[in-house]
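From the pipeline queue, job 12 of 40. The input is one protein chain; the requested action is below.

Action: predict structure.
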Amino acid sequence: MLKNGERSEDSQSRVATGVSHKICLNPHTPCTRRAHWKVSIIPILFYNAPVKPKYRRMLQKLETLQGGDRTWSVYILRCKGGSYYTGIAKDVQARLKAHQNGKGAAYTRIYPPEKLLYQEDGLTRSEALVREAKIKALSRAKKVALVQ
C-alpha cells in the first residue's frame, strides 16, 4: 500500500516516459489501478494509418444509408510544410476561414492551410464521412493524383 503522495515504480516510469497518464476519481491519492490508466495517442503521427475495424464497421453501415440533406462537401487543403488535410463541411469557404483563423481542427492550428486543392460537393453527411475516410486512407501519391 502506498502512502499519500507516493507513486509506485510502475506509475513513475509511465509518467516519466509520457506514454500514458492516469485518470482517477480521487485527486488527492495516487492511483495504481491499471483500469485507471489511459494511453495517450498523438493523432498527427497516425494520419496515414489504415482505418480501424470498429470505424470500418461504422463506415460500412453509413454506406447503406440513403436519402438525407445533400449539402455536405469533402475537401482537401494543402497546409504549411506541404502536408494535406482532409475534412467535411456544409460551407467549405467558411470552414477554410475558420481553419485560417485558428478556429478549425487542431492540425490546422499547427499547420495553417495555404490553399484549397480539392472539393467534392453534393453529398449527404454519411456519404461525406465515408468519402473522407477513403481519401484519408489513400497514399500520398494517390492523393496528389486526386487533386491534380
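Job complete. The first strand starts at residue 20 and ends at 22.
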